[in-house]
Amino acid sequence: MTAKLFKIEQQFQLHQSKRVLLIEDNDVNRMLLCDYLIYYGYDVQSLSEASTFFSTLKQFQPELILLDLKLPDIDGYTLLEKMQNKPDYVKLPVIIVSAFAFKADRQRAIDLGACRYFVKPVNLIDLIQAIQEELA
C-alpha cells in the first residue's frame, strides 16, 4: 500500500457523512466515482445532467461538487457562472473532472470559481486527497 493511500485510509472515518454532489453524464464514470466516494464514507448524490442542478443543491446541500464540463443539456462552465451569481453557492468548492485537457479550459474553469481541475482519466487517489483537502 502506498503512503498516500495509507494516509487516505487513516482519514476514512473523518469524512463520513460529508455530502458530495457529482454531476457526470457518462454512466460508467458516474457509477465508478459514486462507488469510490461511498467507499470512503461520503454521502453522494449524483446527476447525469444539469436540469435539476439548483434544486438538488437546495435539497441535498452538498459540501463539495464534482463537476464534468461536458453535459448533455448545459455545459459545466455555465453552471459555474450561474453559481457565481448566487451568494449561497459562491464559496461551495467545485472540483472539475473533465476530458478537456487544454490549459485554456482549466484556466476558464478556475476563473469561474472552480478550486481544482482534474483531467480524465483521473487518478482516484489524487482525487480523494483533493476532496479531503477541500473539506478540511
Automatic annotation (TrEMBL):
List keywords of the entry alphabetically.
Answer: Phosphoprotein
Name of the protein:
Response regulator
The protein's organism comes out as Plectonema radiosum NIES-515
Residues with 4-aspartylphosphate modification: 68
Response regulatory domain spans which residues?
19-135
InterPro entries associated with the record: Bact_response_regulator, CheY-like_superfamily, Sig_transdc_resp-reg_receiver
- PANTHER family (UniProt xref): RESPONSE REGULATORY DOMAIN-CONTAINING PROTEIN (PTHR44591:SF3), STRESS RESPONSE REGULATOR PROTEIN 1 (PTHR44591)
Pfam family membership, one? Response_reg
- What SUPFAM superfamilies does this protein map onto? CheY-like
Claim: GTP-binding is one of the keywords in the record:
no
